[in-house]
Amino acid sequence: MSVSCNLTPSQHLFLGLSVVGFSADGGREQQTSTLTVQLVEDTTACNPKKYYDRRLELKEHTGPDPGFIYPRTGSPCYFRVDDFEFCGLLQRYEEGNAENGNLWTVVLQSPNIILEKTHVILSDRVS
Asked: For residue 3, which of 7, 24, 56, 83 is within the disulfide window of CB 3.0 to 4.6 Å?
């Protein structure tokens, strides 16, 4: 399953920058799901921008974007735009150039990657 969206109606912040668009690929069985988010720094202070704080409460920011928050690789991240949400681990981020400023690409992956190569013990008996 793939989902993609280019945003215009309402602005959202993620990691301190405005979300331009995103695409998600749903993994099947043991494959990981990924989310790719395109961000740009908006230096204007016009429309309110929605974001979720550390307690996952919806907030609004009316000034220029605060600037990119540099998370560590492997950090848990929560992304939400309207009815779409994704919880994952930061895989990587890249900075590039766009016509109106710096464009950032952020990639998250589902946390099932941390369970790879683990064993689950369902009993206290060893056979």
From this structure: 24
Torsion, Cα 55 60 66 69, to 10 degrees, reads: 30
Read off the pTM: 0.78
What pLDDT digit, counting tens, does each position of 32-68 carry?
899 999 998 888 777 788 988 889 898 988 888 888 9
Rounded CA gap, 57 and 9, in Å? Answer: 21
51 within 8 A of 61, measured Cβ to Cβ: yes
HSE (CB half, 13 Å, CA atoms) of 106?
32
Single-letter amino acid, residue 28: R
Angstrom distance (rounded) from CA 37 to CA 55:
21
